[in-house]
């Protein structure tokens, strides 16, 4: 599937309208998202940027069904998320979404293979198939030979690859990544972004948060948050060499 | 899925072995204590039941001596007030099956070079019926032995073993002082009495022989006690009343005067002994159950710590699709695996302890299948009960909060 055909596909994977989120604090509700509206279609690769505290992570957590908005609509894959119960959102997290964290979040006492296979445990895949699919994905991210190692035996970049393999193991439509390269050096970051680009070429929709313009250049579309609102939303200018004048 | 979760429970337990072991230890001690205490309690109940059976059923003993509100007052200086004819009169009462006068003491038995101090009971042939006491060898003495005060005897198993060893005592002659006694038969073993005496360390002789030739008596026909067997448990209260009335009349005791005899319902004593052991074994079990409870609380404590420590792990699992019930199952399984493993070890230790108690002290112990099953299921129940709260706490965590936990 090419980028051209993907953009022609009009089905929205994510559709948010008038999304609000306020955290309860001792000093009363603290609004973080203020009427965010956004549609992301199948096959898109979106980078979300913005200053610290602008609400990017809050937004991603809502997209990932880890948190619930205070107001507004969120339709994921055609389903109104606010109407779903806890088990149903767990199912979405398991099947539809793959989440990649800044801090990798692998389980330290499990082998890489078991880490990758873990989402399959929660949807009742049998042991043999779990093992086989975990091996396949570890091989895909170039870590096939480390299947039996523990996470603390490999580098940060490798751990993030394992986390991506885990996110992919249940063949999700959507990958959400909150600063996936935030803990990595620039060379390793480029490798991770190349992996995301490859996944996007295979048709997986990707939304990632980043502070670094270089990283955002890998996306096809850039969205900028400021103080809980979207202030910029445009396709990436691929004609500009990375690291030069930024939009907005 | 369950096997995958069991694997994880195993891994989590292995990750902190010392802690898992200590948690388990609470369970091990709890179950071990319950099994051991139940074994000892049931053993005691069994021993009491045995003594009660050996005593004979529906029994009274009538003792010589005065009683008043303060209790029994029968000094050894007091002359026996009961007589053989009292016993005969009691036998005639309605509801009385049979009665036997008893005059006893202890004596040094000699056979060849063996010497043994034993309990000697002088009584009538009815005594064997009263006590439901059978012979394993030989035959009992008869009324003609009684009339003639012959020197014949029936011997209990313990006395026989100590005097005759492996020989068959029947037909042999032993001596008490200088007097020879012919052994007519050997009594069936009865074991311990309720007060812990060995009932088989005994020699039974005709009453008249005991009175005239062994212990003497202040006047002819007086005895220290009469044993009475009622026909059925239901008639015992009536028999007790009519015996009291009969003896008061026979002893010419005026209204308002104290009895010079004392009727005791041995069956009631036995029942209360059985009740006492039953309560004692309940108490043992209850005390042991407390340690099981403490073990359970230990599990809850550790599981709560574990949930807090693994908050982040729980967040990660939720982020990749674990439902509440998956997390609940995971932590519950861990608690159950710990308690069942602790329980199995506890069972082994408890059974081992019971066997050891039996070997070292000779106390009767009984390990019944039901007590093992009860201990096991209670322990598993304790695991579920005390594991549930921490597991539910884990399952109810908010995914975002859990992920944010450092
Ligand atoms: N649980 C919470 N309770 C109260 N306030 C919160 C909570 N989580 C986040 N906030 C506040 O919400 C605002 C937005 O946080 P958020 O993490 O979404 O920002 P961000 O854009 O991801 O920032 P960064 O780039 O530093 O990751 C911040 O001011 C933060 O203090
Ligand atoms: Mg953030």
TrEMBL record, chain A:
Transmembrane segments: none
InterPro entries according to UniProt: AAA+_ATPase, ABC_transporter-like_ATP-bd, ABC_transporter-like_CS, ABC_transpr_LolD-like, MacB-like_ATP-bd, P-loop_NTPase
Domain ABC transporter positions: 14-245
PANTHER family recorded: ABC TRANSPORTER ABCH.1 (PTHR24220:SF86), IMPORT ATP-BINDING PROTEIN (PTHR24220)
Gene Ontology MF terms: ATP binding
Pfam hit, one: ABC_tran
Family annotation (SMART domains): AAA (SM00382)
Keywords assigned by UniProt, alphabetized: ATP-binding, Cell membrane, Membrane, Nucleotide-binding, Transport
The protein, known as: ABC transport system ATP-binding protein
CDD domains registered for this protein in UniProt: ABC_MJ0796_LolCDE_FtsE (cd03255)
KW DNA repair (keyword) present: no
Keyword Transcription regulation annotated: no
UniProtKB/TrEMBL annotation, chain B:
The keyword Disulfide bond belongs to this UniProt entry's keyword annotation: no
Subcellular location: Cell membrane
Domain ABC3 transporter permease C-terminal per the UniProt entry, residue ranges: 286-399
UniProt xrefs under Pfam families: FtsX, MacB_PCD
Boundaries of every MacB-like periplasmic core domain copy: 20-245
Keyword Membrane: yes
Assigned protein family: Belongs to the ABC-4 integral membrane protein family.
The name this protein goes by in its record: ABC transport system permease protein
Organism in which the protein naturally occurs: Azospira oryzae
């Amino acid at each position: 599937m090419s980028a051209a055909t993907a953009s022609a596909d009009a089905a929205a994977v994510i559709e948010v309208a008038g999304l609000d989120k306020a955290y309860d604090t001792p000093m009363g509700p603290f609004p973080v998202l203020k009427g965010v509206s956004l549609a992301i279609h199948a096959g898109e690769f979106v980078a979300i940027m913005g200053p610290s505290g602008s609400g990017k992570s809050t937004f991603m957590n809502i997209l990932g069904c880890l948190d619930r908005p205070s107001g507004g609509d969120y339709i994921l894959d055609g389903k109104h998320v606010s109407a779903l119960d806890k088990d149903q959102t767990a199912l979405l997290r398991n099947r539809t979404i793959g989440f990649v964290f800044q801090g990798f979040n692998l389980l330290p006492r499990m082998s890489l293979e078991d880490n990758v296979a873990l989402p399959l445990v929660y949807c009742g895949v049998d042991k043999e198939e779990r093992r086989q699919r975990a091996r396949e994905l570890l091989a895909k991210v170039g870590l096939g030979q480390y299947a039996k190692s523990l996470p603390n035996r490999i580098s940060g970049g490798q751990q993030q690859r394992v986390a991506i393999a885990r996110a992919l193991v249940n063949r999700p439509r959507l990958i959400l990544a909150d600063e996936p390269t935030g803990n990595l050096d620039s060379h390793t970051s480029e490798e991770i972004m190349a992996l995301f680009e490859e996944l996007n070429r295979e048709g997986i929709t990707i939304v990632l948060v980043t502070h670094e313009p270089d990283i955002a250049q890998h996306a096809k579309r850039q969205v900028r948050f400021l103080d809980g609102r979207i202030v910029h939303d445009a396709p990436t200018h691929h004609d500009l060499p990375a690291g030069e004048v930024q939009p907005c | 899925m369950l096997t995958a979760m069991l694997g994880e429970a195993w891994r989590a337990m292995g990750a902190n072995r010392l802690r898992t072991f200590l948690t388990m230890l609470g369970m091990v001690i709890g179950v071990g204590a319950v099994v051991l205490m139940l074994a000892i309690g049931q053993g005691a109940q069994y021993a009491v039941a045995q003594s009660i059976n050996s005593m004979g059923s529906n029994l009274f003993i009538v003792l010589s001596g005065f009683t008043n509100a303060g209790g029994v007052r029968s000094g050894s200086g007091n002359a026996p007030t009961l007589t053989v004819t009292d016993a005969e009169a009691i036998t005639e009462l309605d509801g009385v099956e049979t009665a036997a006068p008893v005059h006893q003491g202890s004596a040094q038995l000699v056979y060849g070079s063996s010497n043994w101090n034993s309990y000697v009971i002088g009584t009538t042939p009815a005594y064997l019926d009263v006590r439901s006491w059978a012979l394993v060898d030989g035959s009992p003495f008869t009324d003609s032995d009684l009339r003639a005060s012959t020197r014949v005897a029936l011997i209990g198993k313990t006395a026989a073993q100590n005097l005759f060893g492996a020989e068959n005592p029947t037909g042999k002659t032993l001596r008490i002082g200088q007097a020879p006694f012919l052994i007519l038969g050997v009594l069936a073993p009865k074991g311990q009495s309720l007060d812990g005496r060995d009932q088989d360390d005994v020699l039974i002789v005709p009453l008249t022989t005991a009175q005239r030739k062994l212990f003497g008596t202040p006047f002819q026909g007086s005895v220290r006690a009469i044993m009475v067997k009622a026909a059925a448990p239901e008639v015992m209260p009536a028999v007790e009343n009519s015996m009291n009335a009969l003896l008061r009349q026979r002893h010419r005791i005026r209204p308002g005067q104290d009895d010079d005899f004392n009727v005791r319902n041995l069956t009631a004593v036995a029942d209360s002994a059985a009740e006492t052991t039953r309560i004692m074994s309940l108490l043992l079990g209850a005390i042991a159950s407390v340690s099981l409870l403490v073990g359970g609380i230990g599990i809850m404590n550790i599981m709560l710590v574990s949930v807090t420590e693994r908050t982040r792990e729980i967040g990660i699992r939720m982020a990749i699709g674990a439902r509440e019930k998956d997390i609940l199952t995971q932590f519950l399984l861990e608690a159950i695996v710990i308690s069942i493993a602790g329980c199995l070890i506890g069972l082994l230790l408890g059974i081992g302890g019971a066997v050891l108690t039996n070997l070292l002290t000779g106390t009767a112990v009984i390990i019944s299948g039901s007590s093992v099953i009860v201990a096991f299921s209670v322990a598993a129940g304790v695991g579920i009960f005390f594991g549930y709260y921490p597991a539910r706490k884990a399952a109810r965590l908010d995914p975002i909060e859990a992920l944010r936990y450092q």
